[in-house]
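Predict the holo structure. Ligand: adenosine-5'-diphosphate.
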Amino acid sequence: MDIDAVRGDITAQNVDAVVNAANQALAGGGGVDGAIHRAAGHRELQEACQKLGGCETGDAKATPGFGLQARWIIHAVGPRWRGGDKGEADLLASCYRRSLEVADELGAKSVAFPAISTGIYGYPSEEAARIAVDTIMSTPTQVEVVKLVAFDEATYRLYEELLSS
Ligand code: ADP
C-alpha cells in the first residue's frame, strides 16, 4: 500500500472514497464535515446520513459521494479529547481501522483521510498523526492508496516525518 501526505482540501481529492470527520448523529457540522456537506450537496447527503441512524464513536459508515469526485463518503466518528485517559487513542485508532474495513466492503482502492479529531474535537495533532500512520500501516486491507490530507503545514510536516521514518 502507498501512503502519501497531501496538503489540501479533503473535498478536492480524486479518490474512490473520502473519510469524513463526522459526529455521532451524522447530522453535519463544521470543519471537514461542513466542507464535505457543501461540496457533496447538503440535502442529498443529509438524507442519506439520516437513513444510517447515527454512528458510534470509533465506528464508520458509508454513503454515496453525490457531488464529490469521490464515489463514496465514509463517515467516521472520532473521539473528543478529554485528557487522554478516557480511551481516546483506541477510539481514534478504531476510526482508521473501521474506515479501511468499510472501504474494503465497498471495493474502494484509494481513500483520503482528514486528521480526524484534531479540529473541533481537540485531539493533539502529533499523537493523532502517529495513531493515523501506525493504524493504517498495521491494518490488513485491499486499499492500495491512502492519502493523509493535512489542512495546515504543521500537520503536513508531521505526516511527512512519520512516513519517512
Ligand atoms: P473533528 O471534529 O473530528 O476534530 P474537524 O473537522 O473539526 O474534525 O477537524 C479535523 C481536522 O481537519 C483539523 O485538523 C482541521 O484543520 C482539518 N480540516 C478542516 N477543514 C478541512 C478540509 N476542508 N479538508 C481537509 N482538512 C480539513
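The helical segments are 31-40, 42-50, 88-106, 125-138, 153-164. The chain has one domain: 2-164.
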